[in-house]
Amino acid sequence: MKRQGFFVSFGGILMVVLGGSVIYFGHYAQRDELISDIDERIPVGLFVMGAIMAVSGFLGFIGAVCDSKMLLAIFAFVTLFVWVAVLALGVGLLLLVMNDGYKIERACAIDETTGELQEKLPKRLQTTYDKLWEALTICRTKLPDANSLQECGDFSTDANGHQVWGINFQALYQLAEKKYHCAGFCLDGAPVFGYPNEDGVEVNRANREVPRRACYHQLAERFAAHGALLTGLLLGFSIPLLLSMLAAWWMVCLPPPRKMKGYIHQPDEDEGEEMSDRPTMY
Length: 282
Hints:
- By secondary structure, the chain is mainly α.
- It folds into 2 domains: about 5-95 and about 235-255, no CATH class; about 105-220, no CATH class.
- Helix content is about 65%, strand content about 0%.
- Helix 1 runs antiparallel to helix 3 (about 40-65), helix 1 (about 5-30) packs antiparallel against helix 7 (about 215-255) and helix 3 (about 40-65) packs antiparallel against helix 4.
- The protein is elongated, with a radius of gyration of 30 Å.
- The model has no long low-confidence stretch (mean pLDDT about 75).
- Pfam families: Tetraspanin.
- InterPro entries: Tetraspanin/Peripherin.
- This is Tetraspanin.
- One of its GO terms (cellular component) is membrane.
């Protein structure tokens, strides 16, 4: 196998591994409440990209081993497409993270002075908390001792009778209250899910409406950290993709060897010994 063929075959195996990694991180993004709730297309895009990378890597490996220019050409074209798509997805995700994190911080600063939310994402986040708190308040008219939404069961409904479990960002607020001991979005709010405060004090009937610090800063930081991780991985994956693509194009476009004018082949020692051992034909 030629040197560039070895590199392409190694790159093909690496692409299969990287494709599986992208699929895994797509599954991770799907389970991440903030990323999947803000834009459900991110996990889907990672799944599709990982599958294309794995198939392309397999074709590249087979093409390099079999020295098939057709498979190598397919591998080169697909790798070029994947490389551009990975770069675009990584840069786009970075811009999305920076923009939405800025919107959360900026919108909440506006809320403290004007009482209004103007950005779409902060409005959605605030609406979710309002619905959760509304459902808990309604539940307490029927179950006065309920200290958390979990205790409400079938009574976990808003003023329109809609169940609030499973709405956008519900799992995110539950995670934020449990991990960061916060409540509310832009403004301080009372706990909805009954998790202890920063001092470890359990929620009871006496303190269940005591406001806690708002969650917007923690949510913005979480989104930025997770988005930056996915962005770094995507941009890191683009480097071996580029190298494999260049090696594949090298093999596809390299012309076949031509005999030099006036060249006379000189047999080496092993070849000469082999010819001397042959019987002489008369």
